[in-house]
Amino acid sequence: MDLQTQHSLPFMKMHGLGNDFVVFDARARDLAMTAAFAQALGDRRRGIGFDQLAVITRGDADAHLTFWNTDGSIAGACGNVTRCIARYLMDEGGNDALHLTTSRGDLFARDAGGGMTAVNMGAPQLEWRDIPLAEAMDTLELPIEGGPVATGMGNPHCSFFVPDAEAIPLEKFGPRYETHPLFPERTNVQVASIIGPNHIRMRVWERGAGLTLASGSSSCAVAVAAARRGLTGRAVRMDLDGGTLMIDWRDDGVWMTGPTMHVASGTLTPQFLEGLQ
Predict the structure, then answer these.
(1) 57-69: string of b/e by CB count within 10 Å (b at 16+)?
(2) pLDDT in tens, 53-92
(3) pLDDT per position as a tens digit, 147-199
(4) Which entry of 89, 93, 123, 214 is 20 to 30 Å from 157 by CA?
(5) What are the residue ranges of CATH 3.10.310.10 in the chain?
(6) What pTM does this model have?
(7) What is the distance between the alpha carbons of residues 175 and 172, in angstroms, rounded to a whole number?
(8) Can you tell me whether residue 7 is helix, strand or coil?
(9) Nearest in space to 170 (alpha carbons), one of 208, 130, 202
(10) CA 26 to CA 144: how far, in whole Å?
């Protein structure tokens, strides 16, 4: 069904640690999502505003998820919105576990107790071809000033370990490396500091979205990078601008656990939808 022919269109607003999302439940309807629509809705003054947009559709598992950035590009993975949607679907069905599919592949979620939701983001991609990088190289130390680590979590990540993550002007630093020629699909950029045993402070610049308060896939990538560097163990506390996630790199994948929030449900008006034509 074409978006512009809708008389109204229900949506949900959710966030995970301030990483905010607009979510459409399209299991009972067809939505012809477009880049232009994502851009218009992502405008925080003229639309709703979000870091990522997600669409829930039916699939071979409990549900299939597709993600969009504010610039209209498709995001391969988004851990925080996956947790938010998993909580929504578990509450809806009275379940404590779910099997979701994305372009990343199969993701599994469970109720972690205490209002927390855990999602297995899958095994990290550590080979240069899989991230992907432009050419063969050691992903544990890229030939970039600062020697960052490259990791794939269904989307590419470039993680810098620095003495003080707070001191990095990420608004300038992030865009510089998001479009670095070593990353043909652009990259998420993180700056991270080890602040205690298995305790990391991280800030993130997301490709296609910019500076965000939190990023689940970035948290997973930084945890993997820190463990590979021998800076931490495989289970860490990750403090972001918006709050804390627990990351555990296990044999079956990288598990991410944290809170979710379903802020509101609403309806896009005919006036807004007609204005997109």
Answers:
(1) beeeebbbbbbbb
(2) 999 999 889 999 999 999 999 887 888 999 999 999 999 9
(3) 999 999 999 999 999 999 999 999 999 999 999 999 999 999 999 999 999 99
(4) 89
(5) 3-120+260-274, 149-250
(6) 0.91
(7) 6
(8) coil
(9) 202
(10) 42
